[in-house]
Design brief:
This protein has nine helices and no strands. The chain has about 230 residues and is an all-alpha fold. The N and C termini lie far apart (about 95 Å).
Length: about 230
């Protein structure tokens, strides 16, 4: 056990360790907790399980986290940061390519972390802070997608008669929903269809040429001809 790390390694007033040793211990606890939560689920995990996996005493866990919910919150913070960094790592230049790459990355990262994300969703039912963290993450993702759709509409590449906020939320939910509720899918098989639905939904083509409806106004109205 690593009881010696209790000395001088406790949290500061904002909850963070004050020494390098303390930060290393906290990080080790978060890594251990992530593994145990994935194996046992949130409800069946005990703080002592995490302590044993991390190689520290039971009391050491409580120096850094006052509850299992707080420990899960730290796991979720790291997990969402990791997922967010991966989703923002695309390199494609054209709009269609960026959408295809983003969908591929989402499916890949969800597949990699499917079990842990399932555990987080289950824990969020009872833990308001976790539910809020997930909601904020989704909202941030949708906001970035909406900004991209608005940009494409401004360039005449996406259908102008779409509400960008609704389109962003619906298309993002389609990919997330498929990833969550279609277990065992092969990414390389489902990715082309999901991307095609995205492109068609926005009025884009594979090479992101301006769509036929991209120059329509949101509420088109006929203009009467002048009398001769």
């Amino acid at each position: 056990m690593d009881d010696g790390e209790l000395t001088g390694a406790g949290p500061t007033t904002d909850g963070g360790p004050v020494t390098d040793r303390g930060r290393r211990t906290r990080d080790r606890l978060v890594v251990a907790a992530r593994a145990v939560f994935a194996e046992r689920g949130f409800a069946d995990t005990r703080m002592s399980d995490v302590a044993e996996r991390a190689g520290v005493s039971h009391g050491t866990v409580y120096v850094y986290f006052d509850s299992k919910a707080a420990l899960m919150a730290a796991v979720v913070e790291d997990l969402l940061a990791e997922i967010g960094d991966y989703l923002r790592g695309g390199e494609a230049d054209e709009a269609a390519g960026r959408i295809a790459e983003a969908n591929l990355r989402y499916l890949q990262v969800y597949t990699e972390h499917a079990r842990m994300l399932q555990v987080v969703e289950e824990a969020a039912i009872a833990e308001v802070a976790l539910d809020r963290a997930l909601s904020d993450f989704r909202a941030g993702h949708v906001a970035r997608v909406e900004a991209g759709i608005r940009r494409l509409q401004g360039e005449g590449r996406a259908a102008a008669d779409l509400d960008p906020g609704v389109a962003a939320a619906a298309l993002s939910a389609m990919v997330e929903g498929y990833a969550r509720h279609a277990p065992g899918y092969a990414v390389d098989l489902v990715h082309p269809t999901l991307t095609a639905l995205w492109l068609r939904g926005l009025g884009l083509t594979q090479d992101a040429e301006p769509s036929e409806s991209s120059h329509q106004t949101t509420n088109p109205s006929p203009v009467p001809e002048k009398a001769p």
